[in-house]
Amino acid sequence: MKNLILIFALILSSFSFGQKKQKLNLTNALIVGQMDKEDERFMLEIALTEFFAELNVKAVPSINVLKQGADPSLLVTPELRAAVKEKGIDTYMLVSVRGYDSRFKKTNKNDSLAVALDYGTLFSLYREEVTSVTFEFFIYRNDVMVKTALVRCGNISSKETVLKRLKKKLAKKYKKW
Q: In this model, does residue 92 exceed pLDDT 90?
């Protein structure tokens, strides 16, 4: 009897370990750059919109939905939600700079979209004294976080190289999503 239970437990565990993670199947996204400086937010959102457009993902930068200088937390208001849904978007992708020159671990946060939109960042896209920058992605669908990811870009020398390296690294990460 003990052997039968042991065999059953081994078979059951092999099935649970063998299951593959569910794919993200990203078909559309509203890109929300969580940057303090408006010009950096614009650069980041446009670069990511272009990147996802090349992958046939319908991407819209939040600057096309919000008025200039508006707080991104307004994206949870019923009016703006309706405007986003009208554009055929059901996925929100929040992107921020996590930090510089360190190895970071994925966050354990599982906050709602409304809370995540209030996250701030103290970091800019580029600083002269750093050699790498780490971006954090939070992907929400139907107000539920479906994916978090970190993308570390090294060997940077300007804002332009940061965005160039981000696209290159993100292409590799996206294949795994």
A: yes
